[in-house]
Amino acid sequence: xxxxxxxxxxxxxxxxxxxxxxxxxxxxxxxxxxxxxxxxxxxxxxxxxxxxxxxxxxxxxxxxxxxxxxxxxxxxxxxxxxxxxxxxxxxxxxxxxxxxxxxxxxxxxxxxxxxxxxxxxxxxxxxxxxxxxxxxxxxxxxxxxxxxxxxxxxxxxxxxxxxxxxxxxxxxxxxxxxxxxxxxxxxxxxxxxxxxxxxxxxxxxxxxxxxxxxxxxxxxxxxxxxxxxxxxxxxxxxxxxxxxxxxxxxxxxxxxxxxxxxxxxxxxxxxxxxxxxxxxxxxxxxxxxxxxxxxxxxxxxxxxxxxxxxxxxxxxxxxxxxxxxxxxxxxxxxxxxxxxxxxxxxxxxxxxxxxxxxxxxxxxxxxxxxxxxxxxxxxxxxxxxxxxxxxxxxxxxxxxxxxxxxxxxxxxxxxxxxxxxxxxxxxxxxxxxxxxxxxxxxxxxxxxxxxxxxxxxxxxxxxxxxxxxxxxxxxxxxxxxxxxxxxxxxxxxxxxxxxxxxxxxxxxxxxxxxxxxxxxxxxxxxxxxxxxxxxxxxxxxxxxxxxxxxxxxxxxxxxxxxxxxxxxxxxxxxxxxxxxxxxxxxxxxxxxxxxxxxxxxxxxxxxxxxxxxxxxxxxxxxxxxxxxxxxxxxxxxxxxxxxxxxxxxxxxxxxxxxxxxxxxxxxxxxxxxxxxxxxxxxxxxxxxxxxxxxxxxxxxxxxxxxxxxxxxxxxxxxxxxxxxxxxxxxxxxxxxxxxxxxxxxxxxxxxxxxxxxxxxxxxxxxxxxxxxxxxxxxxxxxxxxxxxxxxxxxxxxxxxxxxxxxxxxxxxxxxxxxxxxxxxxxxxxxxxxxxxxxxxxxxxxxxxxxxxxxxxxxxxxxxxxxxxxxxxxxxxxxxxxxxxxxxxxxxxxxxxxxxxxxxxxxxxxxxxxxxxxxxxxxxxxxxxxxxxxxxxxxxxxxxxxxxxxxxxxxxxxxxxxxxxxxxxx
Length: 969
Description:
Elements: E1 2-7, H1 13-25, E2 28-33, H2 40-62, E3 76-83, E4 89-96, E5 102-107, E6 113-117, E7 119-124, E8 130-135, H3 139-147, E9 159-164, E10 169-174, E11 178-180, E12 188-194, E13 209-215, E14 221-224, E15 227-232, E16 238-243, E17 255-260, E18 265-270, E19 275-281, E20 287-293, E21 305-310, E22 317-320, E23 331-332, E24 340-341, E25 348-354, H4 382-393, E26 397-402, E27 405-411, E28 419-422, E29 430-435, E30 451-457, E31 462-470, E32 475-476, E33 482-487, E34 492-497, E35 503-505, E36 530-533, E37 540-543, E38 548-551, E39 560-561, H5 566-570, E40 572-577, E41 591-598, E42 604-610, E43 617-623, E44 626-632, E45 639-645, E46 648-655, E47 663-664, E48 678-686, E49 692-700, E50 709-714, H6 738-743, E51 747-751, H7 760-776, E52 781-791, H8 793-801, E53 810-814, H9 820-823, E54 827-828, E55 833-834, H10 836-840, H11 854-859, E56 873-876, H12 887-898, E57 903-906, H13 918-937, H14 943-946
Parallel strand pairs: 1-2, 50-51, 50-52, 52-53, 53-56, 56-57
Antiparallel strand pairs: 3-4, 4-5, 5-6, 7-8, 8-9, 9-10, 11-12, 12-13, 13-14, 15-16, 16-17, 17-18, 19-20, 20-21, 21-22, 23-25, 24-25, 25-26, 26-27, 28-29, 29-30, 30-31, 32-33, 33-34, 34-35, 36-37, 37-38, 38-39, 40-41, 41-42, 42-43, 44-45, 45-46, 46-47, 48-49, 49-51, 54-55
Helix pairs in contact: 1-2, 7-8
């Protein structure tokens, strides 16, 4: 232990700063000497030692590096987390942002672990015996092959690895293209590799892929040439393969092979010269269904029949075809029919559709006009029709066929009732049918859910109307006894009893709100949601803002708050975590795992809830962290999860006793300790209109209250619930990276914004500017060097705010709406949908049509007040933006340019609303730093800012460099 004597006031900022950082080192003891202490001689005797030691400590601390753009690629995250059924083996992929991934396997029984470089895809067998993965070629070698523009066959090859988890040893097979495993990996996998050139008779022919079936225990293999399609059964006991040789290949025939992997036998079950596709097994792997067509040419629409096979049969049979009974006239089974078995295997769900009219081959294409005709009575506009076109051409209508009733099709859905689902995983008595076709036109401006809905009784063949319309999205309960939906106008949950045909409200008599009370858009609020249904639909668990209610859908039993009002009392929001994705309902014996979020402290954690007995609700963990990726072993109480906060990288943890103790399994991003990171804290203030508000304040790790810091303010709706969220340093897709700017000496502030109706711009001003002014009262804020940045809705608000205030030194707006009057009539080009609903009912929050309230659209449009702007503005708006038309960015740029205002626009070519190409994200990150560093830190402006990059220099110069003032170069 080393003693440090400090001469300063105990409550001074200097003392707090030194104490905070020295105590981190854990081997210092601090004494404070003041002028009133009778210890002057001792103080001066030790002064030199104190100064030296303090200098060493602070120098060591100050040597932490700042984040720069070189750190991104190596920053890691955890992906694809798995746990064996017995909880013994845990696996995950540790992925850098760019580079070679690592497969991580931990044996909890022995404490041993295995790491294998370059694996980014793997499968852990449920019993924990094996891990199978694809070992990728080194990233650096692939990069070099791309640079040298090598042919695909000459690229570095991947390999297959099989790990024996018991011994943590693995076996490698070279030159593998891919592998596949059953959903529940047992003993077999298949992998693909290219046929060796020395075995190909025609050396000039293109190499074919081989499909190899491998037994993981015996290592026995079976090689299949000319395969086209294959499918495993769920549990890996069966495999079906379609073989389709090329026309010139006389050594093989069209066929379907069935492998009984349990017995090790195979047989040919179809052998006609046909195309076979869309294979599906039943749950047990004993039954197989698939499509077949004699038309193997490239026709516009092929007609298929449906083949059925059971493993006790010698070969498959035709179950239904285009001539089968019950199939509507001129309807067919086509390549999109996709048959599947019900859960119990007793019926087959399959789509059928009207045969499309053939293309007129007499039309001479190059002499015909090409255009889209917009009609004012079209249910949806042409761009939306074109966006949906592929799906519409592939649309089929659900029906049922039975393995024991050949040549009969039961039609359920049709063109008037296109949407259908069968209850109880396809086993049930009822089918829910719905149609939103009558309401498509109004969906251009009205986002509320509406659909006509019916229940079809498969036992009686009767169709019963639920409502026209149902004001919501109707769904079937797990066992199919009820249809339920959220009625937004009435703010209640409703059920329709599929047997009694009675509709009732589930929540009308309960004295709490089940609608989102924080909704601040001019639309009906959504619900908090449904947690789960009980076994046999005996009850349903429904959320309010905090607690969970158990409700009898028949209304016979009184609703029960099963979290005992603890959530509302303690301001904790409870939500059910389904730890078994295949389990569709809750059994009475189940102990429920609940996530918990404290709305005041922003802490997160877990509770457990017993459905029976005393003290059912038990707190297990609540801490200053975010938790994610919760996985539970199927047969034990072992839980694995990720845990992080702003200052702690996400890592993998395990608990075997419901958080009485936890074990950290990984330590990714250890390099984070070498960098000047930061802290996150809540900041509160009062807005201009007197409302309390919150935001998050991020300070550098080496924060010194005696210094002044430039401020970056980023906003998008609300952030305060994310107080403990981690942000990895990463190239920007559109917004400032918080840890990057904090590490480099910025204070970053993310204020919450709450809205009314009709004034989104003034609402943003009310919260952002009041928050900035409150923040500026702190002595460590450099109020003359504050900036704002936002993307999309945040970008709009940036564009608006600089028309109202000059307090910001610089601003960055990504994909901003500048002119609501033109944006209102625009298109969201990715979906093809009209933008009118956004202004009338959702995020843009005008709450009225433009014809009724033109002035509101003008008042909230930055472009009309461009003459008020004095803040330098950097816009990013990309030419393939599918959300905000990029001419919005152009409008603002052109208006500011005409007025001689400093403005730049980054237009990334063929890029989306948020950048998708990593190279462009890296570029944007550099420019964001250069732009804000210039205005807030006085850094020299780069060439792209001082004189731009002319089109003639595009692709040759990027303008990052600082211009030499003497030479002008």
